[in-house]
């Protein structure tokens, strides 16, 4: 059944901390009494990884890694999913199939928050015929959280992410933000004052924003 609040968590790039942010947000929400679930449409990984993204999210939600991401969508090559499928000689990944799998894969009992995790950046190929933003819109996501570094490239990247994700509401999470770093502070100021983006650097604030959406009666 569709979660009350359906949230896409994506990023400006790989390695920005999407999975950590997702897991920590879910753990905190669960600790506050909200029911949570996570789904990865597909995941790629190194075969010698100790834990995949699905394992990390499963630990945060109390689900199994196979519930978070169907085993048929695990691709043991560190590339975008449709590229990995091609390298492994597997059938092409089609957006409609991922939409069906994620949409029908939520727990039977409705949960408060359903998180859809992404592979790579916002516009990275997720399927042979689509990206994460398209999937989120097709599934009727309520909002997107975009994880970013607070470096010199953040402003350009986040402007592009907002365009790709439109019309979804976007919350920016600046990961590994250092309040003693002048560049970080100036990036934050520009994003909030010039671009008027919703930006946070603190996990509890991100959680509170999610709770606020729930309290406002989303869906």
Outline the fold blueprint:
Elements: E1 5-11, H1 18-31, E2 36-39, E3 43-44, H2 53-61, H3 65-68, E4 74-75, H4 81-87, H5 95-103, E5 113-117, E6 125-127, E7 130-131, H6 132-138, E8 143-148, H7 154-165, E9 170-174, H8 182-194, E10 198-200, H9 203-215
Parallel strand pairs: 1-5, 1-8, 2-5, 3-4, 8-9, 9-10
Antiparallel strand pairs: 6-7
Helix pairs in contact: 1-2, 1-9
Strand order of the largest sheet: 2-5-1-8-9-10
Domain tally: 1
What would the average pLDDT be, to the nearest integer? Answer: 95
The helix fraction, in percent, is 40-55%
Structural class: alpha/beta
The coarse overall form would be: globular
Order of helices and strands: EHEEHHEHHEEEHEHEHEH
Sum up the structure in keywords:
single chain; Rossmann fold; alpha/beta; two-stranded parallel ribbon; 9 helices; 219 residues; 18% strand; six-stranded parallel sheet
